[in-house]
Design brief:
This protein is mainly alpha-helical. About 75% of the residues lie in helices and about 5% in strands. Helix 1 crosses helix 6, helix 2 packs across helix 3 and helix 4 packs parallel to helix 7. The longest helix is centred in the middle third of the chain and has 29 residues. The protein starts with 9 loop residues before the first helix and ends with a strand.
Length: about 220
């Protein structure tokens, strides 16, 4: 005789409710944009009561901070999963990071994250709650990227930061163009041009080092 399934604890039920709300918020941000998203809409999409929503996230800004953290961690996991176990030259690594970044920026997670980031300009409450999270993410990303570049032979920190800033800004802008209905073939052509430009730049920089490195992850 099959034993009945164990009942979830209160903490487990609360955790699942929280996950449903974050998932619903990401879906809403992806489909409707930040301005159209409310805690009421998210609760409806998640299939939970308004009270349960407010118990988990007292304000929209509180919920958005959780979404920003969740999407960032998923991005990190995607990069690690793609790069893990591979031996890559510095150029191959940069282009792989670009490819993953392009996929992530166009995903519901990426769109949701960028919607939140853009909205901090006009929503002081959101900015107060979310900007510390986004700044921490940016610092972590810069440190990681610099370690990768330094291991390959590019040890100039300003150069590493500039490469990362250019790549992220370009990917974010191209993803926005795509979301706004720009011809997809043109957007994809622009991305391929970005790939070629950054690849050529990294090759040129590594040619100036004594031993362009291969990085093992």
């Amino acid at each position: 005789m099959t034993a009945p399934p164990a009942r979830l604890t209160q903490a487990q039920r609360s955790g699942r409710t929280r996950e449903r709300l974050v998932a619903a918020a990401i879906d809403a941000l992806y489909r409707y944009g930040y301005a159209a998203v409310s805690t009421t809409l998210v609760a409806e999409l998640a299939g939970v009561s308004r009270g349960a929503m407010l118990h988990q996230f007292s304000t929209k800004a509180h919920l958005m901070a959780e979404v920003a953290e969740t999407t960032h961690q998923r991005n990190i996991a995607a990069y690690r999963s793609t790069l893990s176990g591979n031996s890559l030259t510095a150029e191959e690594r940069l282009l792989t990071i670009l490819d993953v970044g392009w996929l992530r920026h166009g995903s519901p997670d990426g769109v949701a994250h960028d919607e939140i980031r853009s909205a901090t300009r006009s929503d002081p409450e959101l900015a107060e709650r979310v900007m510390p999270v986004l700044l921490r993410h940016a610092e972590e990303t810069q440190e990681t990227f610099f370690r990768l570049m330094a291991a390959a032979g590019i040890t100039d920190r300003p150069v590493s930061d500039a490469l990362l800033t250019m790549a992220v800004a370009a990917l974010r802008g191209l993803a926005l163009e795509k979301a706004l209905g720009q011809d997809e073939a043109q957007v994809e052509a622009a991305f391929q041009q970005l790939r070629r430009t950054l690849g050529a730049d990294i090759r040129d920089r590594l040619a100036r080092t004594e031993e362009p490195g291969v990085i093992y992850v």
